[in-house]
Design a protein that fits this description.
Structural class: alpha/beta
Radius of gyration: 17 Å
Distance between the termini: 16 Å
Helix content: 55-70%
Bound molecules: thymidine-5'-diphosphate
CATH class: Alpha Beta
Number of strands: 5
Strand order of the largest sheet: 2-3-1-4-5
Number of helices: 8
CATH topology: Rossmann fold
Shape: globular
CATH superfamily: P-loop containing nucleotide triphosphate hydrolases
Largest sheet: 5 strands, parallel
Strand content: 5-15%
CATH architecture: 3-Layer(aba) Sandwich
């Protein structure tokens, strides 16, 4: 059996990832494709505990390296326990945030740079997304969409931090245009979902024709 597709969603806080992930799951189901939905940090019982530590507003003294390792620890467990087994069973996996989030939040936002790539290479055992949808939204617009009392430790960061994060995302868009697909998220839910649908249909056609060629060989 061939491996399932690994799809990730990225974007600033408040960019509407959760809604779009639900829409994509529905689209895949229409086409008879079973999708596993999961998220980071979290996605496993251990990962959810790590998530609580990371996002707790009372943990203001957390060192940036500690933060980067905690995200990577949650990811290591997630890859080993959920993502790899699902892909190997031929299922499609849709993940709300993955390594790219660490590259931009810890690498750019916290200024840890390439150390974040090194830590994560170890954590993910070579796993990379087949496609990543970047819901592109100016950071202030994202921040304005989240109520102040509901903001977690990361969302409480100054706008300068979120601007750096956004700059990191734009760098990824420039460096990996094939995989890292930017979608203008300042539009209506339906418009954003429509664009993701177009990309996804193209991708599925490509995957199907590759499978046909493999069978003929
Ligand atoms: P998320 O669950 O997407 O938050 P929300 O559901 O509120 O949109 O992510 C939690 C926060 O963690 C978010 O601010 C982004 C941050 N984050 C990192 O800094 N590094 C990472 O590797 C990941 C996965 C998330």
């Amino acid at each position: 059996m061939s491996e399932g597709l690994f799809i990730t969603f990225e974007g600033p806080d408040g960019s509407g990832k959760t809604t779009q992930i639900q829409r994509l799951k529905a689209l895949l189901e229409e086409r008879g494709i079973e999708a596993v939905l999961t998220r980071e940090p979290g996605g496993t019982p251990i990962g959810e505990k790590i998530r609580e530590i990371i996002l707790d507003r009372e943990n203001g003294e957390m060192d940036s390296l500690t933060e980067a390792f905690l995200y990577a620890s949650s990811r290591a467990q997630h890859v080993a326990q959920v993502i790899k087994p699902a892909l190997e069973a031929g299922k499609t996996v849709i993940c709300d945030r993955f390594t790219d989030s660490s590259i931009v939040y810890q690498g750019y936002g916290r200024g840890l740079g390439d150390r974040v790539r090194v830590i994560n290479q170890i954590a993910v055992q070579g796993l990379e997304p087949d496609v990543t949808f970047f819901l592109k939204l100016p950071p202030q617009t994202g921040k304005d969409r989240i109520k102040a009392e509901e903001q977690d430790r990361m969302e409480l960061e100054k706008i300068e931090f979120h601007n750096e994060v956004f700059h990191g995302y734009e760098e990824l868009e420039r460096m990996e245009p094939e995989r890292f697909i930017a979608v203008d998220a300042a539009r209506s839910i339906d418009e954003v979902a429509g664009e993701i649908r177009l990309h996804m249909c193209r991708l599925l056609e490509k995957a199907e024709s590759e499978m046909k060629t493999e069978r003929q060989e």
